[in-house]
Amino acid sequence: MVFSLFQRPRPTTVPTDRIIPLRYWDDLDYLRALCHDFTFRFDDVLDASKLEAALGRLMMIGDWGQMGARLRLNEHGKLEYHIPARYDEKRPVFIFTTTRFGMNIDDHPLGSQLPKAGQDQSFLSPSSDYFAPIVRHPDSPRELADWIYTDRPQLHIHVTLFQDATLLTISYIHTFADAISRTNFFKAWIAVLRGHEEEVPAFVPYDHDPLCMLGTSAPAQSYTNIRQLLGGLSLALFGLRYLFELLWFRKLEEHPIRLPGRCVDRMRETVLQELATRAPQGTPKPFVSEGDVVVAWWVRTMIKALKPAPDRTIMVMNVFNVWNLFPEWFPNGTTGVIGNSFFYSYTLLIASKILQDSSLQYVASTNRRALVEHRTKRQVQAMTAIQRTNFMRAAPVVGDPGLLFLAATNQHKARYFETDWSAAVVRAGVPVSQRPHGLGRPSYVNDIEYCRGYPTRNIVRIIGKDAAGDWHLLFKTRAGAWRVIHRELMELIREKWE
């Protein structure tokens, strides 16, 4: 596959294009390997022409048009932005396509199966890519080659219109944006849609790299996990064990999971009560977030489903954004940043202790302590100093060679379900009085992730909390594990009703 890519002819460089190398933390191998079809489901009919016109206008404000850059791979194997001097029909700033179905969404064979607010969970919903035929255009990109060997812009927007619902999809490669800056893009688009161009922040141009010095000013030895880093033989042994997992359990399944908000609230109350009874007198009141509890439930459920040895180390890698740690690099704020600014904290657990943790306080509180410890300027500097020296600048692995790797990316801070697209609504599909979400607010998010040579098993994407207070999770794991995962979900729901 790799060799066939490099045999393909590359587009000719346009002399008038402005060429800018990708920012340091955007051009990573694993970001090149991941592409997305990110879809909002609306229970309303939106005007596609208004959406397209607003996006076109956004691209004319300040430097926002730089998002129309073409991706190119130079002779040194580095990615570059080639920004046209002007956009026209031949070289558009984005691609916008529309599909119309003359029926309600529940009358469509695929549309009727797309999850929505309050979806029945007595059965597992299909994986996100099952809905590709209705959420994406047949020509939508899905791998790096679709960009670097064509002259397509970074963004392909596809709108699917039913008589009572709308699906809005953006297709892009992960080098373009992370979860938080994706919402920066949505907010700027929505500001124009609402007629409030004064709310559009200044776009941080591609030739400005706010995080270019990250990992250059702190010694790697100050990293809190320095003694537990895997390297050399230990990293090779971990890699072999992980490869065995990939080969032995080849069949994967992905399903979305919705954790009812009442369940998360009850679990969090239980954790906080137990932590309070154990806390020494006079110490600060213990804290865990809803996200900590969601991750804890997912970790325990995965351990029950995967059945690792009782003494096996479980490493949970959490993803967090670092903007607020370095305000000096963002003097005008971060609302105009479109790019990648996420790094990692590591929670080390023992399988047997996870299974014994009926209240989730062990996992949730350990996860919280790890986040607090790692989410500091000094620790991020030290960890990224290590990452700069790693093969392909990959994130370090912490623990022991026999660890079970799990990872969680909590995207709740992106607030997808709170984005307000009502300015484009033509009519309501479901009466507002009969649903928890407002007019023009998403009722569901479908996120198809395409991976090339980068395994994503046992990585949970916490999409966020919807208007009803329910939490949406999306992950893939061994096909044989889903019976246990679904059983755990149903037991949680039944338990919290009692």
Write up what this structure looks like.
The chain has 498 residues and is α+β, with helices and mostly antiparallel strands. It is built from 13 helices and 16 strands. It has helices at 2-6, 29-32, 48-58, 132-135, 145-148, 179-193, 233-248, 261-278, 290-306, 351-356, 361-374, 377-389, 482-497, and strands spanning 18-21, 34-42, 44-46, 70-73, 79-83, 95-100, 156-161, 166-173, 252-259, 313-321, 342-350, 404-410, 425-428, 444-451, 459-465, 471-478. It has a six-stranded mixed β-sheet. Strands 6-7-8-2-14 form a five-stranded mixed β-sheet. It has a three-stranded antiparallel β-sheet with strand order 1-5-4, with no helix packed on it. α9 packs across α11. It is globular, with a radius of gyration of 23 Å.
Secondary-structure blueprint:
Blueprint: H1 2-6, E1 18-21, H2 29-32, E2 34-42, E3 44-46, H3 48-58, E4 70-73, E5 79-83, E6 95-100, H4 132-135, H5 145-148, E7 156-161, E8 166-173, H6 179-193, H7 233-248, E9 252-259, H8 261-278, H9 290-306, E10 313-321, E11 342-350, H10 351-356, H11 361-374, H12 377-389, E12 404-410, E13 425-428, E14 444-451, E15 459-465, E16 471-478, H13 482-497
Parallel strand pairs: 6-7, 10-12, 12-15
Antiparallel strand pairs: 1-5, 2-8, 2-14, 3-13, 4-5, 7-8, 9-16, 10-11, 15-16
Helix pairs in contact: 3-6, 9-11, 9-13
